[in-house]
TrEMBL record, chain A:
It comes from the Eukaryota. It comes from Rotaria magnacalcarata. It is found in: Endomembrane system. Residues 846-960 form the Beta-adaptin appendage C-terminal subdomain domain. This is AP complex subunit beta. Pfam families: Adaptin_N, Alpha_adaptinC2, B2-adapt-app_C, WD40. Keywords: Acetylation, Membrane, Protein transport, Transport, WD repeat. Gene3D superfamilies: 2.60.40.1150, Leucine-rich Repeat Variant, TATA-Binding Protein, YVTN repeat-like/Quinoprotein amine dehydrogenase. One of its GO terms (biological process) is vesicle-mediated transport. Its main location: membrane. WD repeats lie at residues 945-986. SUPFAM superfamilies: ARM repeat, Clathrin adaptor appendage domain, Subdomain of clathrin and coatomer appendage domain, WD40 repeat-like. The keyword Disulfide bond does not apply. GO terms for cellular component: clathrin adaptor complex; cytoplasmic vesicle; endomembrane system.
TrEMBL record, chain B:
InterPro entries: Adaptor_comp_med_subunit, AP2_Mu_C_sf, AP_mu_sigma_su, Clathrin_mu, Clathrin_mu_CS, Longin-like_dom_sf, MHD. This is MHD domain-containing protein. It comes from the Eukaryota. CDD domains: AP3_Mu_N (cd14837). Residues 177-424 form the MHD domain. Belongs to the adaptor complexes medium subunit family. It is found in: Cytoplasmic vesicle membrane; Golgi apparatus. GO terms for biological process: intracellular protein transport; vesicle-mediated transport. PANTHER family: AP COMPLEX SUBUNIT MU.
């Protein structure tokens, strides 16, 4: 209580002092106010009193008041208005500092009413005679944009800002660049910051004279420019190179970015490049003697640079040696780079260092050092022996975590150099008891299993592990199972009992499906065909290589374009973590072939271009109609001019959302008229689908089918609409009885009374009743989640079908799916858990409240660039009047905003709002008499959806979760990078649908099984089929690696 | 750009915050505290912390953390550099940058922060400009303020001045005595293995200037051996073109103290170290150990080596050290397990018979604990005047644009960057 009073008293006292007549007392009081504000105390009650002090003509006092205003204006907007007059006066002050101060402060007060008054002074200040004022005003435009974008567009401030790019004062130019970059980052679609030759020239001139911070902005802007040709690129490089000697590390790294990017465009053999390489290395090394925080960022970037162009730092190994007092984050990064730079000539030195590190105190660092020794062995063959002996030395130290780590890496060395170092197995076995980490235990078991024939007591060792089987981690359990099976195949006579024990254990006493499945496979293999089992289990393993820990080239190239940014620190593409923003994807410029003598060097970049058309083809499954559009749009561009490709890829990225809609729209129209006209049961098309094809046709295709039907049968007339004529796609089989162990699920999605409803039929095709049905939905693009528990009468008797409806909310967690409308569902019953994918038709996401104000519509329509527009024609609408059409669409939550007639064509403007708040704008053009409707769809969203693959049969992540494998009914397997939605590789070889796919322990091989009764064993890197097995009698649904 | 700044002390209190855009709640720092908790050492906090909506970029210096909050993609080095610049500036303004000095000068700090960034974009960061706008507090001014009853931090005359077109140098500087001092300082950074072989070595050099010259002087510095400088970072005032073409430093200097260049000399053949340490440290099962250090000066350096200290962080199981130094003093901190031996000066021309400084004695180990796996690392500090180890020498300092003849002074110093000279034992 007393404290509160004390506080009150303090405020009261300050109030009195602020209103004092004496200027000195006022000033002291104001300082106290600011001091309290600085520590986070609330002094907002003093607002009126502080405002009163503003009138006084004293710069210091004024500044203090301004400081206060900036902090508190937001909370007291009404009071803040009182300050406007003083601001206006100050903006005309003869002193440039006061003018600048006023305009600066006004920009910081984020109150609408103040902003209105800001426009006039700002316009004046942008043209002020004093550069200090202009420079301040430039930043103010960015501030204003942050508060009210429309105002900035309307008042033409952007153009004024662009004019400042040619200002005579370099500081002004720099600030204009900074402001423009910030604006264009906030709304990339505005494309206000286009760079061309003359602008770049101006920027390069300003670069020499502006402040260090300005240089960073200018360099970053330059890095977004695409030079006309290699001469252009070279001259920019020449002008940027001196910046490498700047004392500010941010300037250095931004220069490195520009150079690394433009290097791509130059002749790789030229002397210029060699010179540039020489110049790039010292500044990078210098960054490592700066503060540890700077070192960290530098090291993360050097890591990228070394992967891209290892020559730059090849002679600088020593600077990456670790000091014992480096912060841990620096140590770990240095270690990583040391390994990247290791080669046959410096390996001795590196190894000596690593051994030294392995005796340090910090556990994390020691572990990583031990791993590093293993990586060296794998990378440099000549040194493998030395590495192994170093590791053995380390194992002798008996330090627990060192031993465990060493065993894990020795396993990798065995993988790389089989039958070479087995003599050390005895030493390893001595340490068996001290291993308590799953990874080390699993590695040890792998070694024992793999070399069972050379270890006399292998069965005893494995049996020892088996005793505590239930307490082990899954990784160890799986490995133990495989290990024992291997042992059995090698020494069948003595170990029969052991193998039976382990198989019984995993198949009967474990809950883990992976483990159980694997157990069953082995069991069946062993009991039916031991020879085949031997072939499969003891197959020669692929060698591992050091490439595994490199970034994949496309990602690396993208990251090189972002050197110095957060993306480069996290080694992830920028769009994955800057929220709410869609950053233009940057690619390294391509060196066009006309001046490319060195095919080799541009090899992989050209490959990239080649891949792009491929992607288009892939996207075909979204809907065949789109295909034509996309392919037409991008086919005739074989030349790899960097600009062209860039635009091209952008076109593609933008076009897909409307595409999805496209189909949906046409289907709604189509189906409805069909129902009215001919009453043809649409189910025909669907029921004829083979049962095994769960979602094999994506919505798009299916609806096209419907359309096809409709086309044949039009001609009827007189359509009447009943009340709830909402489009509902027919049910399709999601989970076949074969997959669902007797449970068949078919279903569809509909929008009923403004809710998304999942309508399902459960059929029991098994011989026993089922109960305890439950359903779960995985995270998905629109956050669909069940609003209620699944209601199915239980038990479900054999051959009984129960329809049910499940209302869904869109409030769940969101994760982007491929395709966007994909939904992963898990259904549980008393038998097992089943997983399947289904496609949610997009129209169920159309929200009721999707109407847009007419003005907003027009504005938004204009705002959206042409690139986002998709046009499409419908041939088959005949007998709907426009009013009917409108009604029909309204029922499906497609709202007509306005309707006009232009050149004898009826134009309908409509909006759709998705449940996640995205608006889609539609323009329908109907020519009377002619049975054609043209659509244009636009949306603000830009996003890239790589295509679906027919139906995605299964999705699996590899061991570390970095990659994701999908197999599909289009007879291919695809390797994805889930965080960047890049399709990395497509594997073919199956003649029919691919049911399942797995990757091996070290990610080097994958194994797939398909309807064609074949099991393929594929090398991940090359895509070659290593082995084929054609032996299975039935369809193999799973196949798991050993 | 930079949205907000929090200053946090080692015990985890946010004692100052500043927001350039919308006000952010202090609770954002919880992510920082979480990272802090995970780290054993205060300096181990990762510089960039990712939170769901923001990025926290922090630096650790002078036992303080400056944490910047950003929301947009921005070069992290930009922020880190800026934060360090801020620390530099506070050191310059208040002598030291500590929690106390910042708390004592809240208003000045706040004004400075506001002047340095405008809506998160750097506005003025040059000390000279800022000092013109906001006067640093000093004793003299406090006294005069008391006498005259004026207590403004602002220079009232400045409102009439025009800002200089060179951002780093103010207009109208006058001195009665025109002086220019150049300190060439080189710091040795090296790792030496247990047999005395150099694992890695490099030299980090600086030229720090103190320029008190009237008007707008234009200086040119040439070197006897400019070839040594192939990896240099320059103060923004240095004309890069001129350096590229003629290998001279040509610049209009800022007023007062500043770092003109910093450079790195990494010779392919390792440099010869001026100092060596003979060591023998071992631990025995019986719960004791021996330590024997001898430090000496290499022959080729004929200057005295001053301020020699040897530091050693002992393994955890060491309880105490009982040692006898022949020169200087030693201390052992049983909590941090740090042994520090202040050797003092090693003379340039030792009497022939004079023994080298040694430190010998026993180490007491905790009983029942396993022996340490490795020997501790020694870090050595020293200072040599009148010589730089790379051999860099100034040739001329010329002044153009002004008529007076200034006093010019050059000082050479070789030293060790704190803790960067390490000897493995």
């Amino acid at each position: 209580m007393s404290e509160l009073e004390g506080k009150k008293g303090e405020i009261y006292e300050l109030k009195a002092e602020l209103n004092s007549d004496k200027r000195e007392r006022k000033k002291e009081a104001l300082k106290k106010v600011i001091a309290s504000m600085t520590v986070g105390k609330d002094v907002s009650q003093l607002f009126p009193d502080v405002i009163n002090c503003m009138q006084i003509d004293n710069l210091e006092l004024k500044k203090l008041v301004y400081l206060y205003l900036m902090n508190y204006a937001k909370t007291q907007p009404e009071m803040a208005i009182l300050a406007v007059n003083t601001f206006a006066k100050d903006c005309n002050d003869p002193n440039p500092l006061i003018r600048a101060l006023a305009v600066r402060t006004m920009g910081c007060i984020r109150v609408d009413k103040i902003t209105e008054h800001l426009c006039e002074p700002l316009r004046k200040c942008l043209k002020d005679e004093d550069p200090y004022v202009r420079k301040t005003a430039a930043v103010c435009v960015a501030k204003l944009f942050d508060i009210n974008q429309q105002l900035v567009f309307d008042q033409g401030f952007l153009d004024m800002l662009k004019d400042l790019l040619s200002d005579s004062n370099p500081m002004v130019v720099a600030n204009a660049v900074a402001a423009l970059s910030e604006i264009s980052e906030q709304s990339p679609q505005t494309k206000i910051f286009d760079l061309n030759g003359p602008t770049i020239n101006k920027l390069l001139t300003a670069l020499n004279e502006c402040s260090e911070w300005g240089q960073v902005f200018i360099l970053d802007a330059i890095s977004n420019y695409s030079p006309k040709d290699d001469k252009d690129a070279q001259s920019i490089c020449e002008r940027v190179t001196p910046r490498l000697a700047h004392a500010n590390s941010a300037v250095v790294l931004s220069s490195v970015k520009v150079l690394m990017k433009f290097l791509e465009l130059l002749d790789q053999q030229s002397e210029f490049i060699q010179n540039l390489y020489r110049k790039l290395s010292p500044p990078l090394v210098t960054l490592l003697s700066a503060e540890p925080e700077i070192q960290y960022v530098a090291l993360r970037n050097i890591n990228l640079i070394v992967q891209k162009r290892s020559d730059i730092l090849k002679n600088e190994m020593k600077v990456f040696f670790v000091k014992y007092n480096d912060p841990i984050y620096v140590k770990l990064e240095k270690l990583d780079i040391m390994i990247r730079l290791t080669n046959a000539t410096n390996i001795a030195q590196v190894l000596a260092e690593l051994k030294e590190y392995a005796t340090e105190v910090d556990v994390d660092f020691v572990r990583k050092s031990v791993r590093a020794i293993g990586r060296c062995a794998i990378k440099v063959e000549q040194a493998a022996e030395r590495c192994v002996s170093t590791l053995i030395d380390l194992i002798q130290t008996k330090v627990n975590y060192v031993v465990q780590e060493a065993i894990v890496v020795i396993k990798d060395i065995f993988r790389k150099y089989p039958n070479k170092y087995e003599s050390i197995i005895a030493t390893l076995c001595e340490n068996l008891d001290s291993l308590d980490e799953p990874e080390a235990r699993a590695s040890m078991i792998w070694i024992v299993g793999e070399y069972a024939e050379r270890i006399d007591n292998a069965d005893e060792l494995l049996e020892g592990f088996l005793d505590g089987f239930k307490d082990e981690n899954t990784q160890v359990q799986l490995q133990l199972l495989t290990g024992i099976v291997k042992l059995f195949l090698k020494k069948p006579t003595e170990t029969q009992e052991l193998v039976t024990r382990v198989l019984t254990l995993v198949t009967q006493e474990t809950d883990n499906p992976d483990l159980r499945d694997r157990g069953y496979i082995y069991w069946r293999l062993l009991s039916t065909d031991p020879k085949a089992a031997k072939e499969v289990v003891l197959a020669e393993k692929p060698l591992i290589s050091e490439e595994t820990d490199l970034l994949e080239p496309t990602l690396l190239d993208e990251l090189i374009c972002h050197i110095g940014s957060l993306a480069s620190v996290y080694h992830k593409p920028p769009n994955t973590f800057v929220e709410g923003r869609f950053i233009m994807k940057k690619n390294l410029p391509l060196r066009s072939k006309s001046y490319g003598e060195q095919e080799n060097n541009t090899g992989h970049t050209t490959m990239q271009t080649n891949q792009q058309p491929q992607q288009v083809v892939i996207s075909s499954n979204v809907g065949s109609l789109i295909d034509d559009f996309d392919i037409l749009g991008s086919m005739p561009m074989p030349s790899s001019n960097p600009m062209d490709t860039y635009e091209q890829s952008q076109n593609r990225t933008t076009s897909v959302v409307p595409n999805l809609l496209d189909d949906e729209l046409s289907s709604i129209l189509g189906l409805d008229s069909n129902l009215g006209g001919n009453q043809t049961p649409m189910m025909n098309t669907n029921t004829s689908l083979p049962i095994n094809n769960r979602q094999t046709t994506s919505t798009g295709n299916e609806l096209d089918d419907l359309f096809g039907d409709f086309n044949l049968q039009t001609g009827g007339s007189g359509i009447s609409f009943s009340g709830n004529n909402v489009f509902v796609p027919p049910k399709e089989v999601w989970l076949s009885a074969a997959k669902g162990k007797g449970l068949e699920v078919s279903g569809t999605f509909a929008r009923r009374s403004n809710q998304i409803v999942m309508e399902m039929d459960f059929t029991n095709k098994a011989l026993q009743p089922m109960n305890d049905l439950a359903l779960q939905i995985n995270r998905n693009s629109f956050g669909l989640t069940p609003a209620q528990p699944l209601q199915v009468t239980s038990p479900l008797f054999p051959n009984q079908t129960v329809p049910t409806q499940l209302i869904l909310n869109t409030t769940g967690p969101i994760m982007r799916m491929d395709p966007l409308t994909n939904l992963q569902v898990a259904i549980k019953n008393n038998i097992d858990i089943f997983y399947f994918n289904c496609i949610v038709p997009i129209h169920v996401y159309f929200a009721q409240d999707g109407e847009m104000d007419k003005m907003t519509f027009v504005q938004t329509w204009q705002e959206i660039p042409e690139g986002n527009e998709v046009k499409h024609q419908l041939q088959n609408l005949s007998n709907l009047s426009i009013d009917d059409l409108q009604n029909k669409l309204r029922l499906n939550n497609i709202h007509t905003i306005t309707r006009t007639t232009i050149e004898q064509k009826e134009m309908l403007y409509q909006t759709i709002k998705l449940t996640n708040g995205i608006f889609i704008l539609v323009e329908l053009r109907i020519t009377p008499g002619n049975r054609t409707i043209s659509f244009s769809l636009k949306t603000k969203l830009e996003r890239k959806f790589p295509a679906a693959q027919g139906a995605i049969r299964c999705v699996r992540y590899n061991i570390d979760g970095n990659y994701c494998l999908t197999s599909g009914s289009d007879r291919t397997i695809k390797l994805w990078k889930p965080d960047s939605s890049l399709a990395i590789k497509t594997y073919t070889g199956h003649s029919q649908e691919v049911l399942d796919v797995h990757s091996s322990f070290d990610n080097s091989r994958l194994c797939s099984g398909g309807v064609d009764k074949r099991v393929l064993y594929i090398d991940v890197m090359t895509g070659k089929i290593v082995k084929k097995y054609q032996a299975h009698a039935g369809i193999k649904d799973f196949y798991i690696f050993n | 750009m930079i949205n907000s700044l929090f200053m946090i002390n080692e015990s985890g209190d946010t004692f100052m915050e500043k927001h350039w855009k919308a006000v952010l709640n202090k609770s954002i720092c919880d992510y920082f505290y979480e990272a802090q908790k995970k780290c054993a050492n205060p300096e181990d906090i990762p510089p960039i912390i990712r939170t769901p909506h923001h990025y926290l970029i922090n630096i650790y210096r002078n036992h303080l953390y400056f944490v910047a909050v950003i929301t947009q993609e921005i070069p992290p080095l930009f922020v880190i550099e800026f934060l360090h610049r801020m620390m530099d500036l506070f050191e310059d303004y208040f002598g030291t940058c500590t929690e106390t000095s910042i708390k004592d000068n809240y208003v000045v700090v706040y004004e400075l922060l506001d002047e340095m960034l405008d809506s998160g974009l750097p506005l003025a960061t040059e000390t000279n400009i800022l000092k013109e706008l906001i006067k640093p507090p000093n004793l003299l001014r406090k006294v005069t303020n008391l006498v005259t009853g004026d207590s403004t931090n602002y220079d009232n005359t400045f409102t009439n001045k025009k800002l200089s077109h060179i951002p780093w140098r103010p207009l109208g500087v006058t001195y009665r005595n025109n002086e220019a001092f150049f300190d060439i300082i080189e710091e040795v950074d090296a790792i030496i293995d247990q047999h005395g072989a150099i694992v890695m070595s490099e030299i980090q050099g600086y030229i720090d200037c103190c320029i008190k010259l009237t008007g707008m002087p234009d200086l040119t510095i040439s070197f006897v051996n400019p070839r040594l400088l192939d990896d240099v970072s320059f103060h923004p005032c240095v004309r890069l073109k001129k350096w590229e073409s003629e290998h001279v430093l040509s610049f209009v200097p800022p007023d007062g103290r500043f770092r003109l260049i910093s450079y790195r000399v990494a010779t392919q053949n390792p440099i010869s170290m001026p100092i060596y340490v003979k060591h023998s440290i071992y631990f025995r099962e019986s719960g004791s150990g021996r330590l024997d250090l001898t430090v000496g000066r290499k022959q080729q350096i004929d200057k005295a080596i001053e301020n020699v200290t040897i530091e050693c962080v002992m393994p955890k199981c060491v309880i105490n050290c009982v040692l006898t130094p022949s020169h200087g003093k030693y201390t052992f901190d049983p909590v941090k397990k740090t042994l520090v031996w202040n050797v003092g000066k090693i003379e340039s021309k030792p009497q022939t018979a004079a023994p080298l400084p040694t430190l010998r004695g026993n180490i007491v180990l905790a009983t029942g604990q396993p022996l340490p796996e490795s020997n501790p690392i020694l870090t050595v500090n020293f200072k040599i005047n009148q010589i730089v180890i790379s051999g860099l020498r100034l040739q001329h300092v010329e002044i153009h644009g002004e008529d007076y003849k200034p006093f010019k002074g050059v000082k050479y110093i070789t030293t060790v960057k704190n803790g960067r000279f390490q000897i493995r034992t």
